[in-house]
Design brief:
By secondary structure, the chain is mainly β. It is built from 9 helices and 31 strands. Mean pLDDT is 89; it is low at 1-70. Bound molecules: 2-acetamido-2-deoxy-beta-D-glucopyranose (2 copies) and copper (II) ion. One 2-acetamido-2-deoxy-beta-D-glucopyranose binds next to α6. It catalyses: a primary methyl amine + O2 + H2O = an aldehyde + H2O2 + NH4(+).
């Protein structure tokens, strides 16, 4: 039993965890060097290259994805107009910027360097084999405290400074911001004294940079962050050992400590016992019946191919996938080949997680500001760590790497960031059997096999598992799983019978001196649907009770579907209601089926939650995209980030809610559908010390898109096609 963590392990763990929000005080922050590409053969925190599986997989595949993948990506070239910037292109951007007047002055930081996608009509026209459009980069930079958005044309080397308007708020933090913020308090003697007074050795300290939200005028004109710290002594799960009541207010630009709040001296630091979640730290005296190993085998190899690194083809689907520092991953140009006509039909131009909103429900001094916007504040993709083969994704998975940039513009590779795999969970695609009454001996059943594209972002304590699952029948399921570790609060109580009735704990006592604070999670998806073309309409199909007249029928009531086409944005601000149900269709009004129904896709909500906060509560204003579960806006390439372009400390004047309130026409136009997946989370003891995954999802489902069941002709499974493993199936 290993209870003390060796220094070696710590360094390894930190090399991965540093790129989260956390740092260990004695590990000096090592900025990436300025060579063309970081050397990922070392344990650099910027690379986190581990367990590379791809080379092994490539050998296993009958049809290896082409071209052969190269590990360092140094010679990658773009093949598709939406392919992300390559390492070479990022380096070109840096060189162009270095001679630009704006960057000649003193301090600057590059908060993001991303592909500036070509205009949508160009991309729609583009076919494989066509030359690429001039490649452009979109750069968000802060120079002398001012934010700029620049467009760089890589072919002409021209730099255009974009007008960003008068938005409040700051760009997504850089990794360097987060790392430096957690170290900064140590330059303050009072902070050190406070930690020591709490009985904590400075070498056991772990601190988190917590976005401060926006609560009023006193916070204006400076980038602020709050730092909270934990004890790492005797556990890797320092999140369970909060130094409660200690909050440091820091200027993120000057790294100056502005204030130290320390009101928690009476609150003990919870014990380390039973907090470690690593397999190596478990004691195996409990009764835990072991399962035999299980895996999917594909004796003929996977049936998907990945062309040019990013273009996925599987069953009748074709789509483009790319990693993104802010959104995590982006699915583009999702098309489905019609099984009747062979035509490749457009379904979705672009889909991604646009923003997250995670408000905690504790209004006290050390907690009220915890209302994270993980994509716009921390970078949902920046926080996506390498996936663990065989555990995060099954054996038959293909892994895709991301190329991101450090604050000085140095590109680095995040390996195994996305996985793509075929999934078979033993489910049924469709079936029918006949009873003996009909004397028809029919047993027709088809297995359901799907294709999953997965990414997991570990935003400090929490892990968000994002899946895009494609079905052979044309359905797309977007699923979010929550796991990882709770953000907990220290308390003096170690049993609920000590807690006075009138004293609000804002959560559940999970363990001695540990409270899991109630909170919500909202993940809003940007869904630019292009159903058989860009001009679409949003139709709310209400299911209404009709009362019969006394002589009409023995029945008193029945249900009727009433179609309402949304004319303007406000018609499409939807709050879900169980007793006033509706279906939500995106249709192409100018494309009809044989019998005259407009072709469409519908968004089918699953289990979800709505924000109940006061609309005037500062966090809710910033997270106003959760005021409705569904919104529809006219396509506008400047409106992609539901919480605004600059979310950090924003006041909430550039959100989806303000755009939608312009009430623009949306009928028979290129429209974007927005859907928010929500969770209320009242922590329970099973969430300690690490949470079993909780998932929810929604579907994009064809509705009169096909003339009939599109998977009628898929064959059933037969014994001879399936592998017979040595340990045979149980009898
Ligand atoms: C605070 O403690 C750290 C870690 O021991 C040390 O490196 C730092 O110099 C100290 N700060 C001050 C101001 O003494
Ligand atoms: C596009 O979005 C930007 C940012 O919200 C806005 O300023 C502009 O007016 C929008 N254009 C149209 C045509 O709605
Ligand atoms: Cu939660």
């Amino acid at each position: 039993m290993e209870t003390r963590i060796s220094l070696r392990f710590l360094l390894l763990f930190l090399s991965i965890a540093l790129v989260l929000l956390f740092t260990w005080v004695h590990l000096p922050y090592a900025p990436p060097n300025t060579t063309e590409l970081l050397d990922c053969t070392t344990n650099s925190p910027w690379c986190t290259s581990k367990n590379r599986f791809q080379s092994k997989l490539t050998n296993l595949l009958k049809k290896p994805p082409k071209p052969t993948r190269h590990h360092n990506h140094a010679s990658d070239t773009p093949h598709h107009p939406l392919d992300p910037l390559t390492i070479q292109e990022v380096n070109e951007v840096r060189s162009i910027l270095s001679s630009h007047a704006l960057f000649k002055s003193s301090a600057y930081a590059l908060h993001s360097i991303d592909l500036e996608e070509p205009e949508k009509p160009l991309v729609l026209k583009w076919k494989k084999g066509d030359p690429l459009f001039p490649r452009k980069a979109s750069v968000v930079a802060r120079v002398d405290g001012k934010s700029h958005v620049l467009t760089i044309d890589l072919s002409t080397r021209q730099v255009t400074v974009q007008e960003t308007g008068s938005h409040t708020g700051y760009p997504t933090m850089t990794m360097e911001d987060m790392t430096a913020a957690t170290l900064a308090p140590l330059a303050n003697a009072e902070f050190n004294r406070t930690i020591i007074q709490r009985g904590i050795d400075l070498k056991d300290l772990a601190c988190l940079p917590i976005s401060s939200g926006w609560y009023g005028k006193s916070e204006e004109n400076r980038r602020l962050i709050k730092i909270q710290c934990y004890s790492m002594k005797d556990t890797a799960n320092f999140y369970m050992r909060p130094i409660e009541g200690l909050t440091v207010l820091l200027d993120l630009d000057t790294k100056q400590v502005l204030e130290i709040f320390d009101k928690g001296k009476s609150i003990p630091i919870p014990k380390a016992a039973n907090t470690d979640y690593r397999y190596s730290a478990q004691e195996f005296h409990q009764v835990m019946n072991k399962l035999n190993p299980i895996s999917i085998e594909q004796p003929k190899g996977p049936s998907f191919t990945i062309e040019d690194e990013h273009l996925v083809k599987w069953a009748n689907w074709e789509f483009h996938v790319k990693p993104d520092a802010r959104a995590g991953m982006i699915i583009s140009r999702a098309k489905f080949q019609d099984p009747d006509t062979g035509e490749l039909r457009n379904v979705m131009y672009k889909g991604f997680t646009s923003e997250l909103f995670v408000p905690y429900m504790d209004p006290t001094d050390d907690w009220y500001f915890k209302t994270y916007m993980d994509a716009g504040e921390y970078g949902f993709g920046l926080q996506a760590m390498p996936l663990d083969p065989l555990n995060d994704c099954p054996r038959n998975a293909y892994y895709m790497d991301g190329v991101f940039v450090a604050a000085d513009g140095t590109p680095y590779v995040r390996s195994n960031m996305i996985c793509v795999f075929e999934s078979y969970a033993g489910d049924i695609g469709w079936r029918h059997s006949e009873s003996p009454i009909t004397e028809l001996e029919i047993r027709e059943a088809r297995p359901k096999v799907t294709l999953v594209v997965r990414m997991v972002a570990s935003v400090a304590n929490y892990d968000y598992i994002v899946d895009w699952e494609f079905q052979t029948d044309g359905l797309i399921r977007a699923k979010v799983g929550l796991s990882g570790i709770l953000m907990v609060k220290g308390t003096t109580y170690d049993h609920i019978n000590q807690i006075p009735k009138e004293e609000n704990q804002y959560g559940t006592l999970l363990s001695e001196n540990v409270i899991g604070v109630i909170h919500d999670h909202y993940i809003i998806f940007y869904l630019d649907m292009d159903v058989d073309g860009s001009d679409n309409s949003f139709v709310k199909v209400d299911i209404k009770k009709e009362q019969t007249s006394p002589d009409e029928s023995p029945r008193k009531s029945y249900l009727k579907a009433i179609r309402n086409v949304a004319k303007t944005e406000k018609d499409a601000q939807i709050k879900l209601k169980l007793y006033e149900p509706s279906e939500f269709h995106v249709i192409n009004p100018s494309k009809k089926t044989r019998v005259g129904n407009p072709v469409g896709y519908k968004v089918v909500p699953g289990g979800t939650a709505a924000s109940l906060l006061d609309l005037e509560d500062p966090p809710q204003k910033r997270g106003a995209f959760t005021n409705n579960q569904i919104w529809v806006t006219p396509y506008n390439r400047s409106e992609q980030w539901a919480g605004g372009l600059f979310v950090y400390q924003s006041h909430g004047e550039d959100t989806l809610a303000t755009w939608s309130d312009r009430d623009r026409p949306i009928e028979n136009k290129d429209i974007v559908l927005w859907y928010t997946l929500g969770f209320h989370h009242i922590p329970c003891q099973e969430d300690f010390p690490v949470m079993p995954t909780v998932s929810s999802s929604f579907d994009l489902k064809p509705v009169n898109f096909f003339e009939s069941n599109p998977i009628l002709r898929i064959p059933p499974n037969v014994e001879k096609d399936l592998p017979v493993c040595e340990a045979a199936a149980s009898v």
